[in-house]
Design a protein that fits this description.
With 299 residues, this protein is mainly α. The chain is built from 13 helices and three strands, in the order αααααααβββαααααα. The mean pLDDT is 86.
Length: 299
């Protein structure tokens, strides 16, 4: 088995068998391509089947010179998936990464916005422009529903079930979930749809996309980042924020106000409760409050 065949088959497996999103697949393939390029540049004649642990360790050492621990861990994780796939398909009897450990990395938790900071950001939006109504509806949806930026961009009018108080969200791997939506959020989306979007000349293929740019097309990730960064500058917010900060704040505020962790997991669309727990960086004082309030020996 040569590298071209192995990578092509692996990409097909990730897409069809595991149902991963395009971005995730690209990251996995990029990691394997880095390994192949290393072998080529160093004139090492090893196939995916014959590659041994010693050669792979040389590659890891080379990677460590160029990137930090977090990137190293991600590359090693991608290669583990690749070689586990080869073992699963009986191309190899074992994986050369069995004894290779990922570097230790701490949890990198993003800044969380307080409710006051979120209110300040939204209040800083210039509502005199048509983009202002759209931007307010978008930020309310990011925070109110805890969406990923990709989920916000692909949200459709046909995904809005306002009478049932839910929206349908398409997440990673095209997996769908229903997320509750508040009356406030519904109000601002309705204002945007009726007063702004209805007057847009919509490009073909974007008729059902909820949030549109001036040209009547779906917005880009970069545009959402830019909108948020400009608002942060406008209110002199020192925190380094992004669209994901709103999602993180959504989950954190729910937990701090007593929401069940598994309910938050479902709303965020996490397959594992462990992933949700990483987001929940509540402080020790809040944990103490929970014990004092709910433990039977506290009274």
């Amino acid at each position: 088995m040569n590298w071209n065949q192995a990578i092509t088959d692996f990409e097909y497996y990730l897409k069809i068998e595991r149902g991963l999103a395009a971005n995730s697949i690209s990251n996995y393939i990029r990691d394997v391509e880095k390994l192949r390029l290393f072998l080529k540049n160093n004139e090492i004649d090893k196939t995916p089947v014959s590659l041994d642990r010693e050669t792979l360790q040389l590659f890891i050492y080379e990677v460590a010179k160029e990137v930090g621990p977090r990137s190293q861990a991600r590359i090693i994780s991608g290669l583990k998936s690749f070689f586990n796939y080869l073992v699963f398909e009986d191309y190899r009897k074992d994986t050369p990464l069995d004894l290779i450990e990922s570097p230790k990395i701490g949890r990198k938790l993003p800044d969380t916005l307080s409710t006051e900071e979120i209110n300040s950001l939204i209040q800083a939006i210039d509502l005199s422009s048509s983009e202002g109504e759209r931007n307010r509806a978008m930020l309310e949806t990011l925070y109110g529903c805890g969406l990923r930026v990709s989920e916000l961009l692909t949200l459709r009018i046909s995904d809005l079930f306002f009478e049932e108080d839910f929206i349908k969200v398409t997440g990673k791997g095209d997996k769908q979930r229903f997320v509750p939506i508040s009356n406030v959020n519904k109000k601002y989306i309705t204002i945007y749809v009726r007063e702004v979007r209805s007057h847009r000349k919509i490009r073909k293929g974007h008729e059902d996309i909820l949030f549109l740019n001036r040209r009547g097309k779906q917005l880009t990730r970069a545009m959402i980042f830019t909108i948020i960064k400009q608002l942060a500058i406008k209110i002199d917010l020192s925190k380094n924020i992004s669209p994901h900060t709103f999602r993180h704040s959504f989950a954190t505020h729910l937990l701090e106000n007593g929401a069940d962790l598994r309910a938050i997991q479902q709303m965020l669309g996490h397959e594992s409760i462990t992933t949700t727990e990483v987001y929940m960086h509540i402080d020790r004082s809040h944990l103490a409050d929970v014990v004092n309030k709910f433990h039977p020996r506290q009274n």
